[in-house]
Every structure is written in structure tokens, then in C-alpha cells.
Amino acid sequence: MLLSKLAQILDFPSVDKSDVDISWVESDSRQVAAGALFFPKQGEHFDGLHFIDEVIGRGVSAIVVPEKIDKPIPQLLAPRSQEVLKKICQALYDHPTSKMNMIGVTGTNGKTSTSYFIEAILQYASCKVGYVGTTQYRWPGTTMDAKLTTPMYEMLQKYFYQMQLDQVETVVMECSSHGIELGRIDDIAFDVCVYTNLSHEHLDFHKTMQEYAQAKAKLFTKHLATSPKKNKIAVINVDDEVGKNWVSQGIAENTCTYSMHPGADIYPTSLVTTDNGMQMTLSMMGEKVEIFMPTFGQYNVMNTMAAMLACKVQGVDVATMKACIEKGIAVPGRLQKVDIDAPFTVIVDFAYTEDALRNVLQTLTPFRQNRIVTVFGCGGDRDATRRPKMAKAVYEYADRLIMTTDNPRTEDPASIIDEMAQGIRTEKEYATKVEIIVDRRAAIEKSLQMAQPGDIVLIAGKGHETYQEIHGVRYPFNDQEVVQTYWEQYAQR
Question: Are the beta carbons of 128 and 139 closer than 8 angstroms?
């Protein structure tokens, strides 16, 4: 779109050195190029206006400024507010989510797995799908690493626009509480919104569990409620107390529910765990469905039921869902077995909350032939009150614990571990069960050294992540690669 036309639509004046074509809006000065309109945000630590010379040097096509500046660059004269940024994106991209089916998934745990299950089922049904979430942003022909679970508003709208041009039919996206509260998902025309659960997390941002729940609720009361789509529906976990209350209060005009107990729209009437997975019979809106899932854990049953409801309201038949689920749906870093030739099993999992750690350890416990050895840490610059609770959860199930570094960010790793230890230091077996190794690589290697035949070694907290974040820098680090590299060297000794 020509800058002059964009200015006309928005009713903002422009200073045209020569009219230019604008392809996208960019607020990161490092990412601009020809075709970009640079929107210089004013943040807590940086002001985008300080990078004007840099973006001009990178070949940016035009910039947004509050008043004319003496630079040889086309300019759109407009306030640098979030509302103006949104207006620019919607004018330039022409409301892309109104042209696709949009599925949003929120909750403390299970967002990624549920989103992966929905994506896989829709793809199995020959639907062109886009995914935006914790692990990646992707759609047919495009894949990029995720930096945020829910990207910035202007990034999201750009991706949606490109998806629409690439004929994506349905987008499934994870909606973090930060993304909801900070307006990143504004103007998305949702068709389906899914709620998984709420547990202790992000209180550094939301301050109280009530505020945290209210942020999640906005996905339904604000975004789904105001979506212009027809046949909008909420999919809610009613085993979760918050979800149950929402349903009783009528949080959405149309609601489907899932539960491990009778009374919901989908629930299991039987569930048997085998050596290879779970055989279950589901009651889905009165229809009986027998499914074998080649994975483990009650939480995966819940995630699967949520995905099935979301896909059913999108028109996918039960036979297609059953065939896809029985084929197996892999989610990176979730109960992921590391392929090494060892007399014990190594599992990498993203579990980084008290509830998630309990869930994965409860799932692994029936399969232990000997001990469970767990390596875990807590992230820095996040709610510190959960640290002793996470340690307590692991202590209840694991035979040996190695507390180590996760993503310390700007905090001292040793101090984080000390706060974790406060939850279990008075336990009588603390001295014999617990070891502290600050360096994560050394901690993982020690877990492999101490592992005995029949043990399960759980390395928790980072899962799919391929980095460690320390003082603003993401250093390459992959739990699976650390295991494989060390074991190859160790096995040859």
C-alpha cells in the first residue's frame, strides 16, 4: 500500500519525499528493511526515535513520527500510541483474522500440547493450519523460532496477514496471560477459545491469583464475546475450579465442557494404561469413541479431549480425530524420551510449575523399575514464591533430586536455588536425597553418572528450549543434546 493511501485511510498527514510502497509495520529497529514502515515505540528503557539514523541506514521505506523531522525519509505524522499502531496494522493488513478460522488456547499448563493436538487433527483432516505458540510460529512454507508465546501485536498481525495470503484456513494460537493483558491479541476475530486450567504462576506480573484468573477470563469475556464471527464457542475444563465457576456464571454464550468425570460434553467412561499408552473410551456429546493414545498421563487425556471438542466444532468428524490420535502426536519437550543406548530411561519435559511437575512425576511413577532421578530449576525474574513449592512437589515423588539452574535471567542462580531449597531443607532425607549443582550441564551429567539400571531420569523445566537466558543473552543450550553428547563420550570409556 502506498504511504499516501495509508495516510488518507488513517486521516494522518504524511511528509512524502517521494511516495513509497509499504508492505509491513516494524517496531524493532534491527528488523527493518525496504518496504517497512518503522513505528518507533517508547519503552521503559529505550526510545525508538533514538534509532532513526540506524533504520534509515538499513533501508527502511518510511517512519512514523509525532512531528516532522529533518531527515531524508518519507514520514507519517501520528502519535506513537498503541491505538495508532493498531489502526495502522488493521488498515495495512485489512483485518486478516476475519478471513480465517481462529482458535485461541489459554491456561497455565497444557496450552502447547492442546494446540499441537488441534493442529495435528486439523492437518490430518486436510486443513491448511497456522500455529503461533511457545515452540514456533509456523504455517505451510514458513517456520520460525518463537521468542514469545504470544508475539507483539504488530508481529501477530503481520504473521496473520501472510498466513491469509498463503491460504491458511485455520490458525491455532496460544494466548498467554501477558499477551491478553498487554493487548497483543486485540482485534483477533476468534471462533473458538479453549481454557485448560489455572495454577500458581506469573504472580510477579499479575500480583494475585484473582488478577491472573481475570486476565485469562478476558479471552472469553472480551475477545470471544466481541468477535464478529458466527457460531463462536468456548471450550472449558470444568475439573478446574475456575473453569467450573466460569461455566456456571455463563462466561460465553455457547460453551462445551470437558472433564475426567461424567456430566461434561466429553469425558472418559474407561481408561486403562498399558506399557505403550492409554486405551480409553470417551463419551463425546453422547457418542462413544474408543481410542488408543500412544502416550501417557491423565493431563494428556484432558488435552486430547479439549482438542477434540475444538476440532469437532470446526467440522472434523470423529473417525478422523481417532485416526490422527492413534497415529501419535509428538509435542517437543513434553514427556520426550532421549534416544541413548543406556540401561535407564531419560525423559525431557517442559514442566516448570508445581502442578506440571506433579503431573509428569505422577505419570512416570507407575513405570519406575527402580528410582526416579530429577534434575530441575526455577526461572529468574519470575514469581519467587513458587520456588519452594516446586521443590516440595519434586521431593514428594523423586528418589534423588538435583537442583540446578534454569533460565536465571538477571538473578543469581545460587540465590534462586537457595530459595528452592527452603521448601525441603527441613525434610529428614534432605541430605541423602538432594544435591545442588549450579551448572546445568554438570547437573545433567551427574544425573547420568548416578543413574542405575531401571531408573527414570527426568530433566525438567526447559523441554523444547534450545537456550539458557542469562542477563539478556540467550546462550545455546539443549537438554537433549547435552544428554546425547555426554552419553556418547561416557559410553566409550
Answer: yes
- pLDDT for residue 209: 87
Task: Say how far apart CA 443 and CA 375 lie, in whole Å.
Answer: 7
Residue 230 forms beta bridges with which residues?
none
**319 φ, ψ (degrees, to nearest 5):** -60, -40
Block mean pLDDT (10 aa), the chain, length 493: 93 84 96 96 87 96 94 93 96 97 96 98 98 96 94 97 98 96 97 93 74 95 97 97 97 97 98 94 96 95 98 96 97 94 96 94 94 97 94 98 97 97 97 98 97 97 95 95 94 69
Q: How far apart are CA 421 and CA 405, in angstroms?
A: 13
Q: What local confidence, expressed as pLDDT, does residue 205 receive? A: 74
The answer to whether residues 408 and 440 touch, using CB atoms and an 8 Å cutoff, is: no
Amino acid at 361: L
- Give the pTM: 0.91
Contacts of 407 (CB under 8 A, 6+ apart): 379, 380, 462, 465, 467, 468, 469, 470
Nearest residue to 235 (alpha-carbon basis) of 327, 115, 333: 115
Residue boundaries of the structural domains of the chain = 3-92, 96-327, 336-491
- Report the C-alpha dihedral over residues 382, 386, 387, 390, rounded to 10 degrees: -130
Which of 287-296's residues contact partners 24+ apart within 8 Å by CB, and which partners? Answer: 287/318, 289/318, 289/321, 289/322, 290/322, 291/322, 291/325, 291/326, 292/326, 293/325, 293/326, 294/326, 294/328, 295/328, 295/329, 295/335, 296/335, 296/363, 296/364, 296/367
C-alpha 195, offset from chain centre: 13
Q: Beta 36-38 vs 62-65: how paired, if at all?
A: parallel
Q: What letter would DSSP give residue 409?
A: B
pLDDT at residue 360, rounded to an integer: 96
Does 3.40.1390.10 match the CATH number of domain 3-92? yes
Burial class (CB in 10 A: 0-12, 13-18, 19+), 253: exposed
Options 3.90.190.20, 1.20.1090.10, 2.40.37.10, 3.40.190.10; CATH of 336-491? 3.90.190.20
Find out whether 66 and 72 touch, Cβ atoms under 8 Å. Answer: no
User: Residues, the chain, total?
Assistant: 493
How is residue 423 written as a grid cell?
A: 521448601
Predicted confidence at residue 45, as pLDDT, reads: 79
Rounded distance between C-alpha atoms, residue 372 and residue 362, angstroms: 11
- Inter-residue contact 255 to 233 (CB < 8 Å): yes
Q: What is the SS3 assignment for 85? A: helix
Chain-centre distance for alpha carbon 436: 29
Regarding the domain with residue range 96-327, which homologous superfamily does it belong to in the CATH classification? Mur-like, catalytic domain (3.40.1190.10)
pLDDT of residue 214: 94
pLDDT of 124 reads 98
Contact between residue 322 and residue 453 where contact means Cβ atoms under 8 Å apart: no
Residue 357 has phi, psi (to 5 degrees) of: -65, -45
**Burial degree of 357 (CB within 10 A; 0-12, 13-18, 19+):** buried
